[in-house]
Amino acid sequence: MELMFIGADHEVTGSCHYLRVGEKNVLVDYGMEQGANVFENCKLPVDEALIDYVFLTHAHIDHSGLLPLLYARGFRGQIYATAPTCDLCSIMLRDCAHIQMQEAEWKNRKAKRSAGIEPMEPLYSMEDADGAVRCLIPCDYDSEVTVCENIRIKFTDIGHLLGSSSIEVWATEEGVTKKLVFSGDIGNSDQPLIKHPKNTAEADYVVMESTYGDRLHSSERVDYVGELTKILQTTFDRGGNVVIPSFAVGRTQEMLYFLRQIKADRLVKGHEDFPVYVDSPLAVEATGIFHKNEERCFDEQAMALVKKGINPITFPGLRLAITSDESKAINFEHTPKVIISASGMCEAGRIRHHLKHNLWRPECTILFVGYQAVGTLGRMLVEGAQEVKLFGEPIEVRADIAKLVGMSGHADKNGLLQWINGFEKKPDKVFVVHGEDTVCTLFSECLKGEYKLDAYAPYSGTRYDLISGEFICEAEPIRIKKKAHGISTVFARLLASGQRLMAVIYKNEGGANKDLAKFADQINSLCDRWDRS
Q1: Would residue 434 count as lying in a domain?
Q2: What is the CATH number of the domain that holds 323?
Q3: Number of domains in the chain
Q4: One domain for residues 201 and 234
Q5: Is the predicted pLDDT of residue 488 greater than 50, yes or no?
Q6: Residue 308 to residues 233, 267, 292, 429, Cα–Cα distance (Å)
Q7: pLDDT at 533 over 70
Q8: Could you read off the pLDDT of 489-512 as tens digits, one per residue?
């Protein structure tokens, strides 16, 4: 029984852990890396086609975004997640595939102007995203699920995103059962709309995030409505727009929650009927999924509004932009307005067009309401960049760059400590992941020094024997020497198909001779057709 660390080790994005239980191969999350990556991630220890199950903590792309790639390379197992996470993944993975295909098309158009540049393929296709979605198995919170003879799991609400969870895993091998808990992303108790994170009673091993393991949110409860009202009032009075780069799922709905209250109480004087544009088809679909799951996931304050017949995340003056023409028209409307658009880190999507139209205008405000990873355009703007490039053109930054302080879906250091100290019995080992390099180290040292927990911050490639409680391999960090393009070639896809074929062959071992002979004949015929020798 083995645990191996693949992604988000001394880094914040690209979460992935590998678990081997007997002959079963399991992944916990398979996320996409976003922003600058410091360290190389090791490869999966088995071919993708040999992965039997994926346990998914939540739908954010840095936890789920490579599931279509897993499918493209031969995975045909089951992906277990909460029902709301399955709903969100059904739109988010397809949206991610659409972005991959758009970016590849744009790069190929650009490449035509330069001789000798090979055409690029998207990381995965819409068909791959559809295939991954078909593998999703929806589960209820707080109910044990028997995955197979040797593995049981349970999802607990962790309060980070609609449907987000920590995952309890009971793994049995050679008569020995060990319980692992994967925290996923631990939610901030002060965020609106969804429930607070719940603790777990016991575990032998814990794998926990540390995104904000070196900092505290404000000790005083932040008046988000008041702070947002001030920004709107100041910007609208000078005739500008408030542009909010926002994650389409989660943060957008929280902003709508605050804006509904501001408009209902008519707090922005002289501009009480200001329009709010949500320019993201994904955000519009996600908002519908929030409505669908309100009974399951909304907190007491949000449910109190629902019981009064008030929709907590919609209001008069809310305008939804679906088509590209509707998106373009927003910037030709001169009334001061709020524009909420994805992506939240300004790396892709329609937000980049709105930045192009508003960054150079001193009367406007760009308001950041979420974490900005190192290396992203959002991080550059927050850190004071005077000029940025958008669509190949330099844009002077003259708009106000503001941040809604304390607005976070992640628990701060105290929230993380509250969660890990909620275990009734100290775990045998705590693995600290999903934090920037120094943060992982500092937080694990804090757990060891101040709370007497056996904590360790692994690098990618670290392997641990869960039965003996000993390391098989303590990996050393390997720094990235050059930036990866993140786009595969068609030949790489062909190799992945070959890996899947080998996996299918092994799975047919012990089958009827007649069927195996027929299978072999079909493979040989295919080889004869394509053999170039």
Answers
A1: yes
A2: 3.40.50.10890
A3: 3
A4: no
A5: no
A6: 29, 22, 17, 47
A7: no
A8: 566 667 667 777 877 887 788 888
Provide the 8-state DSSP code for 49. Answer: G
CA distance 228 to 254: 12
Are 29 and 56 in contact by the 8 Å Cβ rule? The answer is yes
pLDDT of residue 195: 92
Contact status, residue 289 vs residue 298, Cβ threshold 8 Å: no
- Judge contact between 11 and 432, C-beta under 8 A: no
| Inter-CA distances, 20 with 17, 28, 155, 333, 464, Å | 10, 11, 20, 56, 10
pLDDT bracket for residue 486 (50, 70, 90): very low
Count of Cβ atoms closer than 10 Å to residue 185 Cβ: 27
The residue type found at 327 is: S
Beta-sheet strand order (sheet of 400-403): 318-321, 276-279, 338-341, 242-245, 365-368, 400-403
The tokens describing 361, both together, are 């205008």
Q: Pick the more confident residue, 252 or 407.
A: 252
pLDDT of 516 strictly over 80:
yes
Q: Does 343 sit behind a cis peptide bond, omega within 30 degrees of 0 on the bond before it? A: yes
pLDDT of residue 427: 97
* DSSP secondary structure letters along 469-509: TEEEE-PPP-B-SS-------HHHHHHHHHHHHHHHHHHTT
Co-location of 344 and 365 in the same domain: yes
Going by pLDDT thresholds of 50, 70 and 90, the confidence category of residue 113 is low
Q: Decide if 436 contacts 443 (C-beta within 8 A).
A: no
Give the largest CA-CA distance in the chain.
81
CB 289, CB 317: distance < 8 Å: no
Is there a single domain that holds both residue 256 and residue 356? yes
pTM of the entire predicted model:
0.84
Residues 399 and 414 in one domain: no
Per the structure, the complete domain to which residue 84 belongs is given by 2-216+409-473
Exposed/middle/buried for residue 425 (C-beta within 10 Å: 0-12, 13-18, 19+):
exposed
